[in-house]
Write a structure and sequence with these properties.
mainly alpha; about 60% helix; rod-shaped; single chain
C-alpha cells in the first residue's frame, strides 16, 4: 500500500497531476495569473488616475466658476480719511459680508440655473453686492457731508433754526462715533435716544443770508420812500414773505433764530421752531414780527423825510393852509417866469406866502411884481412828486390844469 502511494506520488510529480500523464506547467499558470492580475491592477490604477484627473478638472472648473462669482463681488471700499474706530466697524462688516458671499458662491455651483436653490444663493450674492455698492456710496457721501459740516461750523454759517439737528450732526460727524451697518447704511445712536439712518439725515441748514438780505432790501426801500406803509403795500410785502418761506421752511426758522436784524433771535421758543407740523403757525408769528419791523422802518423814513423838509424850508407847513394851484403870469410869478404854482397861504395874517413852482415855467424877461423868489419853498419834495406824476401819467401834458391837480394831490400826500 505504501509502495502504491509512493508510485502515485511519483506519477503526480512526473505528470504534474495529469491523470493521463504529461507535465502540468504550474509556473506558467501562476505567471499567467500574475500577469492577468497585474493587468487588472494597472487597469485599476489607470481608472483611478483618470478619476483623479477628472476630479481635478472638475474641481478646477468649479474653482474657476466660483472665482468668476467672487471676482464679481464689489467689495472695494475707500477707507481713506476715516478714523480707526470707524474703519474697524466697516472692515468687520466687509469681512462678514464677504464670508456670506463666498459661502453662497460655493453652494450655487451645485445647482442648475433653473433650480430654486440656485436662485436662493444668487439672491444672497446679489444682496451682498448691493450692500457693498451702497456702503461705498454711503461712505463717500458721509465724508463729503462731514467736511461740509465742519467748514460751515468753523465759518459760522450754520443756522440755529434747528438745534436738535445741529446737535445730532455734531455727534454723527465726530470721528470717534461708532455706528452699525445695515445693508450698507450707517445707523447712528444719538444722545437723545434716537436711531438715525444716515441715508435720511440732512445736514443742518445754513443761515438764510439771501432771504435776510431780501427782507432788509424791502425795509430799506420803504424807508427811502419816506411814506407810511399803506394797507396795499403791507399786503404785497406779506405775500412776498409767505412765498419765500413756503419755498424754503429752513429760511423761516433761520430768520426766527439767527438774529439778522437786531442781533437777537425772535421771541419764539425752540419747541415751536422744531415742530414741523406747526410751520403755518410759526410762519404767521414770524411774518407778523417782520411786518412790524418793516412798518416801523417806513414810519422812520417818513419822519426823517419830514425833518429834512422842515430843515430845508426853515419852517414847518403846519402854519399854512392847504396849497392852491394857480397859473401866474411872468409879471405875477415870484421867479419872473410864467407857470403853475402851489400857493401856501399862512394861517397867521402876518405870515409870508409860500410859492412852489409846478412843472415847467415859461421864460420871461419881466421881473416879479409880487412875492420875491426867495419865498419859493419845498423844491425837493415837489421834484419827487413831479417825477411820480410823469411816470404814472405819461400822457398828461405838463403845464395843464389836470397835470397840476395830479401833481398837487401827490405832493400833499408826501408832506
Amino acid at each position: 500500500m505504501a509502495n502504491q502511494q509512493l508510485i502515485q506520488g511519483e506519477l503526480f510529480a512526473a505528470t504534474g497531476g495529469l491523470k493521463d500523464g504529461g507535465f502540468l506547467d504550474v509556473g506558467g499558470i501562476v505567471g499567467a495569473e500574475l500577469e492577468k492580475a497585474n493587468k487588472g491592477i494597472q487597469a485599476g490604477r489607470e481608472r483611478a488616475r483618470r478619476l483623479v484627473k477628472e476630479q481635478e478638472i472638475k474641481a478646477k472648473a468649479v474653482d474657476k466658476q466660483i472665482a468668476g462669482y467672487v471676482n464679481k463681488m464689489k467689495s472695494n471700499v475707500d477707507l481713506t480719511g476715516v478714523s480707526p474706530e470707524q474703519q474697524k466697524a466697516i472692515q468687520s462688516y466687509l469681512v462678514n459680508q464677504k464670508n456670506e458671499y463666498v459661502k453662497a458662491a460655493n453652494e450655487i455651483v451645485n445647482y442648475s440655473a433653473s433650480d430654486p436653490e440656485y436662485m436662493h444663493y444668487a439672491d444672497i450674492m446679489n444682496s451682498v453686492n448691493n450692500s457693498f455698492v451702497n456702503l461705498s456710496s454711503t461712505l463717500k457721501t458721509y465724508k463729503a457731508n462731514q467736511a461740509e459740516f465742519v467748514d460751515d461750523f468753523q465759518n459760522n454759517r450754520l443756522s440755529n433754526g434747528d438745534l436738535v439737528r445741529k446737535k445730532q450732526a455734531g455727534e454723527i460727524y465726530d470721528p470717534k462715533t461708532n455706528f452699525s451697518i445695515e445693508n450698507g447704511d450707517f445707523i447712528f445712536s444719538t444722545s437723545d435716544g434716537k436711531k438715525v439712518n444716515f441715508r435720511d439725515f440732512k445736514n443742518p441748514s445754513e443761515k438764510a443770508f439771501k432771504t435776510a438780505t431780501s427782507i432788509a432790501t424791502i425795509a430799506n426801500t420803504v424807508y427811502k420812500a419816506g411814506a407810511k406803509l399803506n394797507p396795499t403795500q403791507a399786503s404785497s410785502i406779506r405775500l412776498q414773505l409767505e412765498e419765500a418761506f413756503n419755498t424754503n421752511p429752513d429760511a423761516l426758522r433761520s430768520i426766527a433764530a439767527d438774529g439778522f436784524f437786531n442781533g437777537q433771535p425772535m421771541a419764539i421758543n425752540q419747541e415751536a421752531l422744531n415742530n414741523v407740523e406747526n410751520t403755518d403757525e410759526l410762519q404767521t408769528i414770524v411774518i407778523n414780527q417782520l411786518m412790524e419791523g418793516i412798518s416801523a422802518s417806513a414810519l422812520q423814513g417818513y419822519n426823517d423825510k419830514q425833518s429834512k423838509i422842515n430843515r430845508g424850508s426853515g419852517s414847518s407847513t403846519s402854519g399854512y393852509k392847504s396849497p392852491e394851484t394857480k397859473y401866474l403870469t411872468s409879471t405875477e410869478s415870484p421867479t419872473g417866469k410864467a407857470g403853475n404854482f402851489a400857493i401856501y397861504l399862512p394861517k397867521d395874517p402876518n405870515g409870508k406866502i409860500k410859492y412852489v413852482p409846478i412843472g415847467k415855467t415859461n421864460n420871461s424877461n419881466q421881473t416879479p411884481t409880487t412875492t420875491p423868489a426867495s419865498a419859493v419853498e419845498f423844491p425837493d419834495i415837489m421834484e419827487e412828486a413831479e417825477k411820480f406824476i410823469k411816470k404814472t401819467y405819461p400822457d398828461l401834458k405838463e403845464g395843464t390844469q389836470e397835470f397840476a391837480d395830479k401833481l398837487m394831490e401827490k405832493y400833499n400826500s408826501l408832506i
